[in-house]
Structures are given as C-alpha cells and as structure tokens.
Amino acid sequence: MKVQRYLFYFALFNIFLAVPPWIAEHYYPGAGILIPRFWNLFAVFAILNLIVYLLASWGMSFSHRSSGRALLASISVKLFLYMVIAFVYISSNQVGAANFMLCFFYLYLFHTVFEIYCLLCNLRNQNNK
Question: What percent of the chain has pLDDT over 70?
Fold first, then answer.
C-alpha cells in the first residue's frame, strides 16, 4: 500500500472513528460517557498511529526478512507508548475507571486493528512480487 493511499484511508478511518464519540458528546451530554480531554487523547492516538505505521512501512521496505520484525516491533513499541500515555493521563486527571477503560480501549483497539490491517496488506503485496 502506497503512502498516499494509506493517508487517504487513515483520514477516512479517523473521521469514522470520531463519529460515535461526537454523537455521544452532543446528543447525550449529561451521560458523561467521554472522559475529560478525550479529543486530545484522540489526536495523540492518531498521530502516534501515523508515525508508527510510517516507520514500520519504511522498515518493511528494506527486505522480506525484515517485514515480520518491523510489524512486531511497531506493535510492541506502540503498546509501550500507549501504556505510557495511559499512565500520564491517569496521573494528571481524575477520571472514573469504567469511562477511562471504555474510551482508552475504544481508541487503542481500533487504531491497532487499523494499523495491523494496513501493515498486513503491505506484507501480502510483498509476497505477490
């Protein structure tokens, strides 16, 4: 998958990912579903996902042997960075555990699935060559 195509899918993905929280925020404001500074966390996740994917894609371009390592390294580094972000967020904000888990894993799960899908598309393209 070329970088331009990935950036297009990435923009669409983030728009679709932002719709449910936006609806929850505007149509159910008293429910308190979203955590404070959710949109800041959303932006951090999106930027981190973009950077990690671009670095993994660049690492996969060297050879077929480095592809698997680049995929696993990107997932591991991203998991570590997300856990650091979670620690910093929890340390600096008073938030309910259930709301934080819901919002954090909503962002983490979908960003990780999207990144793995795109990286696996790159691996499949390499196998066809």
Answer: 91
Over the stretch 92-121, which tens digit does the pLDDT of each residue have? 988 888 889 999 999 999 988 898 888 778
Q: Write the secondary structure of the chain as one string of H (helix), E (strand) and C (coil).
A: CCHHHHHHHHHHHHHHHHHHHHHHHHHCHHHCCCCCCHHHHHHHHHHHHHHHHHHHHHHHCCCCHHHHHHHHHHHHHHHHHHHHHHHHHHHHCCCCHHHHHHHHHHHHHHHHHHHHHHHHHHHHHHHHC
Q: Which residue is associated with the tokens 């790159």?
A: 122
Q: Which of 63-67, 70-74, 91-95 has the lowest mean pLDDT?
A: 63-67
Residue 128 pLDDT: 52
Distances (CA, A) of 97 to 13, 32, 45: 27, 13, 19
Domains of the chain, residue spans = 43-129
Phi, psi of 30 (to 5 degrees): -80, -10
